[in-house]
TrEMBL record:
Start and end residues of each FAD-dependent oxidoreductase 2 FAD-binding domain: 25-56
UniProt GO MF annotations: monooxygenase activity
Pfam family membership, one: FAD_binding_2
Domain of life where this protein originates: Eukaryota
Keywords associated with the record: Flavoprotein, Monooxygenase, Oxidoreductase
Protein name per Swiss-Prot or TrEMBL: FAD-dependent oxidoreductase 2 FAD-binding domain-containing protein
InterPro entries tied to this protein: FAD-dep_Monooxygenase_BioMet, FAD-dep_OxRdtase_2_FAD-bd, FAD/NAD-bd_sf
UniProt KW Amino-acid biosynthesis keyword: no
Sequence similarity: Belongs to the paxM FAD-dependent monooxygenase family.
Cofactor: FAD
Organism: Alternaria atra
């Protein structure tokens, strides 16, 4: 399938109501962005959807993150979502790059200017900076509008499946069954025992200090307020600070200021948006870092008889791509934490993370429709996922998957052995 040269999807517009009811019951566990996205798309495809959430309410906490273009193409089928997304996105934001010491290395440029300098289409960014609370509310509002039911205070403690149904059990002993269960409840999901074995999450050895606060607090310090000012016309700007073994960034918006810094784990971090630590720990942590930091800082694919094969086809199309994307994340972390400023002066792209076309040009929905039947034939004839050649890969061409260990990669990086993205074309 050819790569996309614009923001739109290859798929025709099919809003909710375009598909007839399938009679397939889908149970989704978790109301993160993945769970809510799955709920909306399953509903659009005509399935019956229920969602379970362990907490008593929705969590709209969080700050800034980067949302890739390939992950938003399905918005085409949801006009309300698409409209809100356009309104809240940081389109063509300004970006400025500093050394950790405060020395400016790349002056403020719009994303379009940076893309043009890199020989890319200035009107087609690989994604956009987003505020998680705004994106989350956008998804949640859409879920409410479509009438999808969310049951709160449902902590799932076990999953099960047989030849007829799958399901889960909550901590009060309630059993839920469905034709398809989507476990969107995080890395430690109890579903792992059914989908490949329990895998213990390995720490990367890195964490993020993060803070988001009303911009008015900058009034307390005129010097800080001036440094982190917005661009003319009150346009938002992202400032990146690259230093030895770490990096940081800030976002200046009209309403909020976001401050994020990558650091070695200290033991006080948690996988929880509501977790906080004392500011003194952060200040001391910055002082302990190497170097002196600046103070300013397709149609219906089948009925119920095809559910199992559909899930296997999904794994076949997703697994290697996801593994490559995860490895790319480690590569980018190393790049930002070990900036060679002499090379950056010759080529500013060396101070920017990789955003290869195989990631952002991808149209996941169109790819699934185009290659689903081929994937099924391959599975029926015993072709292993790593040997799939009946359709184009959605990961780097020429790459052959081999299991890799995040812990080993992090250990190598600490020992000065750089991560190499190979084989294949990762650009």
């Amino acid at each position: 399938m050819p790569g996309l040269t614009n923001r739109d999807s290859h798929m025709g517009f099919k809003p909710i109501g375009s598909y007839p009811p399938t009679g397939i019951d889908v149970l989704i566990v978790g109301t993160g962005l993945g769970g809510l996205s799955a709920a909306l798309e399953c509903k659009r495809k005509g399935h019956e959807v229920r969602v379970l959430e362990r907490n008593a309410d929705i969590n709209v906490a969080g700050d800034m993150y980067f949302m890739g273009l390939s992950g938003t193409r399905w918005f085409k089928h949801w006009p309300e979502i698409q409209e809100v997304y356009r309104d809240i996105s940081l389109h063509n934001a300004w970006i400025e790059t500093y050394k950790h010491s405060g020395e400016i290395m790349i002056p403020p440029k719009k994303v379009s200017e940076r893309l043009r300098a890199a020989g890319l289409d200035p009107n087609l960014a690989p994604g956009e900076f987003q505020m998680r609370p705004l994106v989350y509310k956008m998804f949640l509002d859409a879920v409410v509008r479509t009438g999808i039911k969310i049951e709160f205070n449902r902590k799932v403690v076990d999953y099960f499946e047989d030849v007829r149904k799958g399901g889960c059990v909550t901590d009060d002993g309630t059993r839920y069954e469905a034709d398809v269960v989507i476990a969107a409840d995080g890395v430690g999901s109890k579903s792992q025992k059914l989908v490949g074995g329990q895998v213990r999450a390995e720490s990367s050895g890195r964490a993020m200090w993060r803070a988001a606060f009303p911009r008015k607090h900058l009034d307390k310090n005129p010097e800080v307020k001036e440094f982190f000012k917005m661009q003319p016309g009150n346009e938002p700007i992202v400032r990146t600070f690259l230093g030895p073994s770490t990096y940081a960034l800030t976002l200046s918006r009209e309403d909020v200021m976001v401050w994020i810094m990558n650091h070695d784990v200290t033991g006080s971090e948690e996988e929880n948006w509501n977790h906080t630590i004392d500011a003194e720990e952060v200040l001391q942590g910055i002082d302990d870092l190497p170097g002196k930091w600046c103070n300013i800082f397709k149609e219906l694919l089948g009925g119920k008889e095809n559910i199992a094969e559909s899930v296997r086809a999904h794994v076949r199309m997703r697994f290697i791509r996801t593994a490559c994307a995860q490895k790319m994340g480690l590569y980018n972390a190393e790049l930002l934490q070990s900036t060679d400023w002499d090379k950056v002066k010759l080529d500013p792209r060396r101070a920017a993370p990789k955003h290869p076309k195989w990631i952002w040009e991808h149209d996941p929905e169109a790819y699934a429709y185009e290659n689903y039947d081929k994937a099924i034939v391959s599975m029926e004839t015993g072709v292993e996922m790593e040997e799939e050649d009946s359709f184009e890969p959605n990961y780097p061409k020429g790459y052959r998957y081999e299991p890799w260990d995040a812990f080993k990669i992090m250990e190598d990086m600490r020992n000065g052995v750089s991560l190499e993205l190979k084989p294949g074309n990762w650009d």
